[in-house]
Amino acid sequence: MISFNVTKKYPNIDIRAAFDITNVGISVLFGVSGSGKTSIINMLAGLVTPTAGHIELCGRTLFDADKKINIAPEKRNIGYVFQDGRLFPHMNVRKNLLYAGRAKANDLDNIAKLLGIDNL
Question: Which of 46, 62, 96, 102 has its Cβ near the most Cβ atoms within 10 Å?
């Protein structure tokens, strides 16, 4: 389960988002350009710190402004596939997938197939 209820104040806009996802698997966040989708994903992943609120994943608090909890991105165990290319150009596909250190070499076939890049 994901419980997400945050506010992020930027100089020209405030983003407020609240949702609960009870069946954690593959979820989709969609909206018009500029609606805050990337900011929401970045807050969930820990790449952007919300101004207020809380984020919980499967009963584990990732962020809580009132309790001053903010788990580091690398400790959240959240996968993030960027929309644009973010691969290390000096590494091949296999080395990029193994870079995080969490993927095992024998899992690469499944990961590549899931991402639709098994032909690479």
Answer: 62
